[in-house]
Amino acid sequence: MSKITKALNNIPRKIEVEFDYFYAIGQVDVTSWDGFAGSLTMESYELPDPFTEEDIIAGINDGGFGVETIDRATVDIYARYATVDVHLGKFGFEGDQLKNAKKGILRRYNDE
């Protein structure tokens, strides 16, 4: 048996990793103050454990650009385990759901 084959056969098939946190990233469709429509990438944000739909909506943001309105958002939720991110789902929001979305300068959760 070659060294490579032996090494590959000795790789553990099961490992245990510890959960770190949930986080969200995504895209928003926006309208600028001069009436132009566009898409922006949100600043990622950490979610509490456990989290609710309201927690997801509360973190939706315009990436700090300061647009007039956030019209639609597509949010991907992840769980972070050590250095591995597990995608939990993709969710869409629009209209009145976004009335309290964050617009303008943002403070990152780890800057607190």
Q: What features would you describe in this structure?
A:
The chain has 112 residues and is mainly beta. It has one domain (18-105). Helices cover 12% and strands 40% of the residues. Strand 4 (69-81) and strand 5 form a beta hairpin. The longest helix is centred in the N-terminal third of the chain and has 7 residues, at 3-9. The radius of gyration is 19 Å and the shape is elongated.
The tally of strands reads 5
Structural class: mainly beta
- Give the SSE order as H and E letters: HEEEHEE
Characterize the biggest β-sheet.
5 strands, antiparallel
- Can you give the helix content as a percent range? 10-25%
Morphology: elongated
Kindly provide the radius of gyration, computed on alpha-carbon positions and rounded to a whole number of angstroms. 19 Å
Number of helices: 2
- The proportion of strand residues reads 35-45%
CA distance, first residue to last residue: 55 Å
Low-confidence stretches: none
Mean pLDDT: 89
